[in-house]
Amino acid sequence: MPKKSLLMWDETLFRDPDVFEIDYIPDQFNYRENQMRELSFLLRPGLKGGRPLNAIIKGTPGTGKTTSVRKIFSDLDDIDSMMVPVQVNCQIENTRFSILSEIYKKLTGHGPSAAGNSFKRVFESIAQSMIEQNRVVVVALDDANYLMVENELNKILYILLRSHEAYPGTRVGVIVIISDMEVDLSREIDSRVRSVFSPTEIYFPPYAEAEIFNILRERVLQGFYPGVLPDDMLRIITAHTMAAGDLRVGIDMLKRSALNAEMAAEREISREHIREAYKVSKYVHLQYSLKSLSTEEKDLIKLIAKASKADEQLTTGDLFEVAKKDLKIGYTSFYEMVQKLDSLRLLNLQFKEGRGRTRLINLRYDPDKILLYL
Ligand SMILES: Nc1ncnc2c1ncn2[C@@H]1O[C@H](COP(=O)(O)OP(=O)(O)O)[C@@H](O)[C@H]1O
Ligand SMILES: [Mg+2]
Fold it and tell me: Which ranges carry the Cdc6 C-terminal domain (predicted)?
């Protein structure tokens, strides 16, 4: 029997709650030494003012891609070199203008004036600043699959990688980070970009069960007071994390299980607290994707979720009829949004024989859950 002791109202199981936050950078970061060494090697020419080699980082969500790059970039920030690293979260910055603004900000310490400014002008200022300060830039486009709508990825790569043509003396390296394993970048990239890109691919494989266990245990030791989560309970969380295939699910489960235990005024996390936590944590990926949508895209997936509940096989043709009426959108933007939802793995689009451009639409999540998290 787990010992049940009442907690004082202000008592907590968390020694350091930050350890379970999504943007926390762990001190202990194992199992990615090879990938980080390879990436550092590619960037090395930039230290002395040469052009860093380009890279593609590929791996499913929660395999440490973002954190690895952040760690290397923060090391670069700490040393005195000629290379300025800029990591851009493309879920948020998903246009040329906003990506270039991030680079500009990093170089100059302040944002470009927004009024009447174009991406061309911002890039001109970036180039000028690179030449004046004698700096090279390495840009990591994190979660770059968000740029695949409206060909934005090609456009930004073109600007960055051909900068030396428009502004001789400028040198830019690019790291493209992709979480969607089905994306074939070589097919997404057009020939004008391909001739200057030629990236080295670095693969981040999913963690093995023992690795997940050790990573999570590290957090437990740092984040909880001793005895809060026994190893046999951590094994259950590890198994769930393995099944979900995303380390974020495990970290989220640690936090929620402990909150559940606190709520029940217990000092130790039990099987039941974990079971309750999993019901919510298994949707972290869904929540993570929904958060990144625009209002219009949210309205559309809401429409799809409602229509899916009414059953019948949903097709793009039928859905467009509804979307046109309810959301007042044209076919082009409708189809682009549907494709984006597909690339985010929120739904699945399938060809249908003999129906022209119409596709079958299947949601990848329970429509009720989608409506709930919206
Ligand atoms: N090797 C590791 N050691 C410790 N924590 C890790 C490790 N790999 C990933 N994490 C943690 O897992 C979460 C997801 O990692 P992240 O780098 O965002 O993955 P990705 O960018 O591949 O989706 C983050 O909270 C991160 O701190
Ligand atoms: Mg990431």
Answer: 300-374
Is 358 annotated to bind a ligand? Reply is no
Of the ligands numbered here, which is closest to the C-alpha atom of 146?
2
Is the pLDDT at 339 greater than 90, yes or no?
no
Cα–ligand 2 centroid distance for 146 (angstroms)? 12
Minimal-distance CA residue to ligand 1 atom 9: 64
CA distance 8 to 269: 17
Residue 345 pLDDT exceeds 60:
yes
Would you kindly state where each structural domain of the chain is located, as residue ranges? 33-203, 207-282, 293-373
Q: Which residues have C-beta atoms less than 6 Å from ligand 1? A: 26, 29-32, 59, 61-67, 179, 215, 247-248, 251
The CATH number assigned to the domain with range 293-373 reads 1.10.10.10
Is pLDDT at 1 greater than 50 in this prediction?
A: no
Average pLDDT across the chain, whole number: 91
Least confident of 56-60, 287-291, 367-371: 287-291
Instruction: Give me ligand 2 centre to Cα 66, in Å.
Output: 4
The residue-averaged pLDDT of 329-345 equals 86
Question: Dihedral through CA 350, CA 352, CA 355, CA 358, nearest 10?
Answer: -10
Q: Identify which has the larger pLDDT, 140 or 92.
A: 140
CATH topology match: 207-282 vs 293-373: no
What does the angle CA 284 – CA 290 – CA 296 come to, to the nearest 5 degrees? 175
Token pair listed for 275: 């079971």
Q: How far is CA 204 from CA 67, 94, 98, 262, 353, in A?
A: 12, 24, 28, 36, 37
Please report the atom of ligand 1 found closest to the CA of residue 31: 1
pLDDT exceeding 70 applies to what percent of the chain?
Answer: 95
33-203: CATH number: 3.40.50.300
Nearest Cα residue to atom 18 of ligand 1: 66
pLDDT in tens, 111-129: 888 766 889 999 999 999 9
Q: How many CB atoms lie within 10 A of CB 57?
A: 28
**Topology of 207-282 in CATH?**
Helicase, Ruva Protein; domain 3 (1.10.8)
Quick count: other Cβ atoms within 10 Å of Cβ 241?
28
Instruction: Output the CA 243–ligand 2 centroid distance in Å.
Output: 19
